[in-house]
Each structure stands twice: as structure tokens, then as C-alpha cells.
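Design a sequence for this backbone.
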């Protein structure tokens, strides 16, 4: 029996130790190794952009988002805004027409973002150089296209911008925004700094138009299409580049119920793609292709960050209390993990509000833990997260 428990402990320590070291290294890399920003916004070589905004039942936010998208500092003749309208009200469509955005209406028995984007791009002419993908609640910083153009002209074919919180009204939204920023530093900035591919995050993305259309046209993803899209770019020899000063503001979850739905979708898609790409990921490691291995396995095999931190803290405390053979390893790895996570928190999130938000973490942790037992079939259907509601 002692051997059995030792094997279990060794397995758990190995997993949490690997996660701790991974996050520590990538977090510090994001802080210590600079990721290039746009040196100049002056250019005479303006390329043509299409800004794609899939909108499924997003009547409450799409009008303001579309209007903001038309307000870029980029020359208006060099970019178009296209709302991909899925189940929008007639009055919403009428008002979108009035403000001057293009509309592509779609209707599916089972809606997905991939279906909507493919339908729109099939209908679009091949006259665009680059495509930007936003969520229906996203607002681009006014110079987003100027900076995207700058980096594309430098040779970047796939870019992930920085998604920042648009709202921080309550603890839930504040924690969601904080989680976003930690991810920005670890899986985006840290990955780029280490010469790997940044994670794609589903919006705030800009791509070479022809390559995006080609790769997306081969996909039928239901959830987590960004994970598959990143891997398809990597197989083409293209790494996603993270650009921190390419900012898009994203509405954060304010209700625990919406948070559960969103995380359920994310966790399910994560494990789905881990299973789908596990064998190719191992083969890529044996060939020395670390970028594909990192994106297909090392990221996807980890539990969500809050679960990792919570479970590791609980297990480390138990190991210390009962003096298990590996207690010292639990303590060392837990300290490393917590330091790496704290280092990734932006200064703007440090303050009294963070302390109050942390008080709600036990409830959120418990909700996320229960989600692990509710994932069956979650990646086989579209789970919509509504925006613009308090």
C-alpha cells in the first residue's frame, strides 16, 4: 500500500513540478526578454485589411463595436469592416447598414465561428492583403490597424494582439481580466520571447489573408478553433507573433453562470485538441520540433491555471502536514509556481481591488473543479457566451 501511495505522489509531483517550472520559465521570459513593439507608425505602404466580426445574437453590443471599428486611424479606403450576422434582429441589421459597415448574413442549424468565418471569406473577393478577427464585444485601440500593418510589412504572417479588459466593474470581471493578462505574459509574450509560437486567443488576431483563408477552409472546429488554427499555421512553418502594443479591449465575464459556460467550452476544447494532436505532438518532439510540441501538448495538458494553483497549494499543505517522502519537492515547486504567477501580474492590477477579488477565488475554484466532471459532449455543440449584460 505504501508503494501505491508513493507512486501516486511521484506522479502528482512530476505533473505539478513540470507545470510549475513551465510557468515560471515562460513568465520570467515574458518579463526579461523584450518583445518588439512598433518603432514608427509612419508608412506610405498601406495594405488592404478586412476586419471580420462574427456576431451570434449579439444585438446588445454589435452596433457600438462596429461603429468603433470604423473609427481607426488607418486610412478608411484601405480597410473594410464586415459583420457576420448570425441571428441578429432586423432592426440591428438596419442600423448596421446606416452606420456604413458591410453585412454578411448567415444561418446554420448549428452555429460555429468557423462556419461563419468560412462563409464570409468564401463570399469575399481576393482583394485583401490581411484579415483581422474580432469578437462581437471587442473594441480595437485606434491605432490597431496601423501597427498591424507595420508588423505584417516586417514579415509577420500571423499576429496575436494583446487582449485587455474593457470592464472591471465587479470581482468576477476583475479576475477574468487578471487571468487574461497573466495568459498574455506566459503563453503569448513568454512564448514569443523564447522563439516559439504565441497562443492564439480567438480574437484580436491579424493574418495574411490568403493563408488564413486557405487554412480556415480546411477546418470544421466547433469550439476552440484558435487552438487548431495555431497548429495549422505552425505546420506551414509560420509561428504566431505576439505584439503587446496591438491592443483590443475585450468584455469580461461579470456573472458566475456565464463564467462557467465559457470555461466549460475552453476546458473541453483544450482536452479535445490534446487528444487529437497528442500523437503528432510526440512525433514532433522526437524530431526536435519544439514549437509544435509546446502548442499541441505542453499547453493543452495543463489544467486551467486557477485549478493548478489551488490543487497544488492544497496538496503541498497536506504533504507538509503528514510529512510525505516528497514534501520538500511539493513546497519548492509550489513556491516556484506562485512566484511565476505573481510575476506575470501587471502593475495596474496590484492594489486593494485585487485583495477583494481574491476573496472570491475559493468559490470560483470550486465551480471550475466541478466543471471537470461536466465536460462530456461540450465540444460537440456551440456554447454561446452572451455579452453586454450585467
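Sequence:
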Amino acid at each position: 500500500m505504501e508503494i501505491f501511495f508513493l507512486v501516486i505522489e511521484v506522479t502528482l509531483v512530476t505533473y505539478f513540478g513540470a507545470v510549475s517550472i513551465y510557468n515560471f520559465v515562460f513568465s520570467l521570459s515574458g518579463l526579461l526578454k523584450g518583445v518588439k513593439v512598433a518603432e514608427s507608425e509612419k508608412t506610405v505602404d498601406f495594405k488592404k485589411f478586412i476586419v471580420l466580426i462574427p456576431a451570434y445574437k449579439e444585438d446588445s453590443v454589435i452596433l457600438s463595436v462596429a461603429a468603433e471599428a470604423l473609427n481607426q486611424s488607418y486610412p478608411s479606403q484601405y480597410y473594410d469592416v464586415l459583420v457576420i450576422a448570425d441571428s441578429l434582429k432586423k432592426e440591428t441589421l438596419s442600423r448596421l447598414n446606416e452606420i456604413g459597415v458591410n453585412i454578411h448574413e448567415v444561418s446554420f442549424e448549428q452555429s460555429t465561428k468557423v462556419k461563419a468565418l468560412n462563409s464570409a471569406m468564401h463570399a469575399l473577393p481576393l482583394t485583401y492583403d490581411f484579415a483581422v478577427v474580432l469578437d462581437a464585444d471587442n473594441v480595437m485601440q485606434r491605432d490597431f490597424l496601423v501597427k498591424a500593418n507595420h508588423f505584417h510589412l516586417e514579415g509577420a504572417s500571423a499576429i496575436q494582439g494583446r487582449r485587455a479588459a474593457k470592464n472591471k466593474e465587479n470581482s468576477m470581471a476583475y479576475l477574468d481580466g487578471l487571468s487574461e493578462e497573466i495568459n498574455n505574459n506566459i503563453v503569448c509574450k513568454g512564448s514569443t520571447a523564447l522563439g516559439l509560437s504565441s497562443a492564439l486567443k480567438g480574437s484580436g488576431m491579424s493574418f495574411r489573408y490568403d493563408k488564413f483563408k486557405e487554412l480556415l477552409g480546411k477546418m470544421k472546429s466547433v469550439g476552440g478553433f484558435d487552438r487548431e488554427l495555431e497548429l495549422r499555421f505552425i505546420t506551414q512553418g509560420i509561428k504566431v507573433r505576439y505584439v503587446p502594443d496591438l491592443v483590443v479591449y475585450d468584455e469580461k465575464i461579470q456573472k458566475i453562470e456565464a463564467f462557467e459556460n465559457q470555461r466549460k467550452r475552453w476546458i473541453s476544447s483544450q482536452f479535445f485538441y490534446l487528444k487529437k494532436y497528442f500523437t503528432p505532438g510526440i512525433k514532433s518532439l522526437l524530431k526536435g520540433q519544439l514549437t509544435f510540441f509546446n502548442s499541441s501538448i505542453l499547453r493543452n495538458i495543463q489544467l486551467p491555471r486557477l485549478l493548478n494553483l489551488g490543487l497544488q497549494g492544497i496538496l503541498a499543505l497536506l504533504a507538509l502536514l503528514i510529512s510525505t517522502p516528497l514534501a520538500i519537492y511539493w513546497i519548492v515547486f509550489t513556491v516556484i509556481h506562485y512566484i511565476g504567477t505573481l510575476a506575470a501580474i501587471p502593475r495596474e492590477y496590484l492594489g486593494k481591488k485585487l485583495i477583494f477579488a481574491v476573496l472570491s477565488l475559493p468559490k470560483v475554484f470550486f465551480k471550475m473543479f466541478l466543471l471537470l466532471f461536466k465536460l462530456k459532449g461540450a465540444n460537440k455543440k456551440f456554447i454561446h457566451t452572451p455579452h453586454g449584460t450585467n
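Residues 2-32 form the longest helix (31 residues).
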